[in-house]
Design brief:
Distance between the termini: 91 Å
Largest sheet: none
Radius of gyration: 24 Å
Helix content: 55-70%
Length: 159
Protein backbone atom coordinates (compact mmCIF):
# COMPACT_ATOMS: atom_id res chain seq x y z
CA UNK A 1 0.00 0.00 0.00
CA UNK A 2 1.42 3.33 -1.02
CA UNK A 3 -1.20 5.43 0.72
CA UNK A 4 0.24 8.28 2.84
CA UNK A 5 -1.90 7.23 5.79
CA UNK A 6 -0.06 3.91 5.99
CA UNK A 7 3.40 5.48 6.29
CA UNK A 8 5.22 4.55 9.47
CA UNK A 9 5.20 7.19 12.20
CA UNK A 10 8.33 9.35 12.01
CA UNK A 11 9.07 8.34 8.40
CA UNK A 12 8.11 10.54 5.46
CA UNK A 13 5.43 9.39 3.04
CA UNK A 14 5.93 8.89 -0.68
CA UNK A 15 5.06 12.49 -1.61
CA UNK A 16 7.36 13.91 1.06
CA UNK A 17 10.24 11.69 -0.09
CA UNK A 18 9.70 12.79 -3.70
CA UNK A 19 9.69 16.46 -2.63
CA UNK A 20 12.83 15.99 -0.54
CA UNK A 21 14.58 14.25 -3.45
CA UNK A 22 13.59 17.06 -5.82
CA UNK A 23 14.87 19.63 -3.33
CA UNK A 24 18.17 17.79 -3.06
CA UNK A 25 18.58 17.63 -6.83
CA UNK A 26 17.63 21.28 -7.23
CA UNK A 27 20.00 22.25 -4.43
CA UNK A 28 22.83 20.35 -6.10
CA UNK A 29 22.20 21.97 -9.47
CA UNK A 30 21.95 25.43 -8.01
CA UNK A 31 25.05 24.83 -5.90
CA UNK A 32 27.18 23.61 -8.79
CA UNK A 33 26.01 26.13 -11.38
CA UNK A 34 25.71 29.00 -8.94
CA UNK A 35 29.18 28.52 -7.48
CA UNK A 36 30.90 30.53 -10.21
CA UNK A 37 28.22 33.18 -10.12
CA UNK A 38 28.27 33.43 -6.32
CA UNK A 39 31.84 34.75 -6.32
CA UNK A 40 30.84 37.68 -8.53
CA UNK A 41 27.64 38.23 -6.55
CA UNK A 42 29.52 38.28 -3.25
CA UNK A 43 31.76 41.07 -4.62
CA UNK A 44 28.68 43.05 -5.64
CA UNK A 45 26.98 42.41 -2.27
CA UNK A 46 30.17 43.40 -0.46
CA UNK A 47 30.33 46.60 -2.49
CA UNK A 48 26.67 47.35 -1.77
CA UNK A 49 27.14 46.76 1.95
CA UNK A 50 30.23 48.97 1.92
CA UNK A 51 28.39 51.76 0.09
CA UNK A 52 25.50 51.58 2.55
CA UNK A 53 27.92 51.78 5.50
CA UNK A 54 29.70 54.77 3.95
CA UNK A 55 26.39 56.52 3.23
CA UNK A 56 25.17 55.93 6.78
CA UNK A 57 28.46 57.15 8.26
CA UNK A 58 28.12 60.29 6.15
CA UNK A 59 24.58 60.62 7.56
CA UNK A 60 23.11 60.81 4.09
CA UNK A 61 19.80 59.37 2.99
CA UNK A 62 19.63 57.19 -0.08
CA UNK A 63 17.84 60.02 -1.85
CA UNK A 64 20.51 62.57 -0.90
CA UNK A 65 23.33 60.37 -2.15
CA UNK A 66 21.48 59.56 -5.37
CA UNK A 67 21.05 63.28 -6.02
CA UNK A 68 24.68 64.09 -5.13
CA UNK A 69 25.95 61.26 -7.35
CA UNK A 70 23.60 62.04 -10.22
CA UNK A 71 22.00 58.58 -10.30
CA UNK A 72 18.41 57.53 -9.73
CA UNK A 73 17.23 56.61 -6.27
CA UNK A 74 15.97 53.14 -7.34
CA UNK A 75 19.26 52.37 -9.12
CA UNK A 76 21.33 53.30 -6.07
CA UNK A 77 19.05 51.18 -3.89
CA UNK A 78 19.63 48.22 -6.20
CA UNK A 79 23.41 48.77 -6.04
CA UNK A 80 23.32 48.81 -2.24
CA UNK A 81 21.28 45.59 -2.19
CA UNK A 82 23.72 43.88 -4.53
CA UNK A 83 21.24 43.58 -7.39
CA UNK A 84 23.19 45.82 -9.78
CA UNK A 85 26.87 46.14 -10.52
CA UNK A 86 27.72 49.77 -11.23
CA UNK A 87 30.17 50.87 -13.90
CA UNK A 88 33.44 52.57 -13.03
CA UNK A 89 31.89 55.90 -14.03
CA UNK A 90 28.93 55.45 -11.69
CA UNK A 91 31.27 54.35 -8.88
CA UNK A 92 33.27 57.52 -9.40
CA UNK A 93 30.09 59.61 -9.14
CA UNK A 94 29.04 57.77 -5.97
CA UNK A 95 32.51 58.23 -4.45
CA UNK A 96 32.35 61.92 -5.24
CA UNK A 97 28.91 62.15 -3.61
CA UNK A 98 30.23 60.36 -0.51
CA UNK A 99 33.52 62.27 -0.62
CA UNK A 100 35.55 59.07 -0.47
CA UNK A 101 38.21 57.58 -2.69
CA UNK A 102 36.93 56.22 -5.99
CA UNK A 103 39.98 53.94 -6.08
CA UNK A 104 38.86 52.20 -2.90
CA UNK A 105 35.44 51.57 -4.48
CA UNK A 106 37.08 50.23 -7.65
CA UNK A 107 39.04 47.74 -5.55
CA UNK A 108 35.89 46.72 -3.64
CA UNK A 109 34.01 46.24 -6.91
CA UNK A 110 36.81 44.14 -8.39
CA UNK A 111 37.48 46.67 -11.15
CA UNK A 112 40.98 47.45 -9.92
CA UNK A 113 43.59 45.33 -8.23
CA UNK A 114 44.87 46.61 -4.95
CA UNK A 115 48.26 48.17 -5.58
CA UNK A 116 51.10 47.58 -3.16
CA UNK A 117 48.85 46.22 -0.46
CA UNK A 118 48.12 49.75 0.77
CA UNK A 119 44.45 50.40 1.37
CA UNK A 120 44.70 53.68 3.22
CA UNK A 121 41.29 55.00 2.09
CA UNK A 122 39.50 51.88 3.33
CA UNK A 123 41.39 52.00 6.63
CA UNK A 124 40.50 55.66 7.15
CA UNK A 125 36.87 55.03 6.21
CA UNK A 126 36.62 52.10 8.62
CA UNK A 127 38.24 53.87 11.58
CA UNK A 128 35.56 54.36 14.25
CA UNK A 129 37.66 56.91 16.15
CA UNK A 130 37.46 59.48 13.35
CA UNK A 131 34.40 61.58 12.62
CA UNK A 132 33.21 62.19 9.05
CA UNK A 133 34.94 65.58 8.76
CA UNK A 134 38.28 64.11 9.89
CA UNK A 135 37.94 61.20 7.45
CA UNK A 136 37.26 63.56 4.55
CA UNK A 137 40.22 65.74 5.49
CA UNK A 138 42.59 62.77 5.75
CA UNK A 139 41.37 61.31 2.45
CA UNK A 140 41.73 64.67 0.70
CA UNK A 141 45.31 65.06 1.96
CA UNK A 142 46.14 61.47 1.07
CA UNK A 143 44.67 61.84 -2.42
CA UNK A 144 46.66 65.02 -3.03
CA UNK A 145 49.91 63.34 -1.96
CA UNK A 146 49.23 60.32 -4.15
CA UNK A 147 48.36 62.55 -7.11
CA UNK A 148 51.47 64.70 -6.62
CA UNK A 149 53.91 61.84 -6.16
CA UNK A 150 52.01 59.03 -7.89
CA UNK A 151 52.40 57.03 -4.69
CA UNK A 152 56.19 56.80 -4.87
CA UNK A 153 57.91 57.49 -1.58
CA UNK A 154 60.38 60.34 -1.61
CA UNK A 155 63.75 60.10 0.11
CA UNK A 156 64.02 61.92 3.43
CA UNK A 157 66.82 64.11 2.03
CA UNK A 158 64.36 65.75 -0.40
CA UNK A 159 62.15 67.03 2.42
Amino acid sequence: MSDESTAEPGRPGKAERAGAAAGTVAGTVVGSVGGAVNGARSKVNDLGDHLREQRQQARMSLRQLAEAAGVSNPYLSQVERGLRRPSAEVLQQIAKGLRISAEALYVRAGLLDEVGGSDVPAAVAADPLLDEHQKRALLDVYASFVAAGRGTPRPASDA
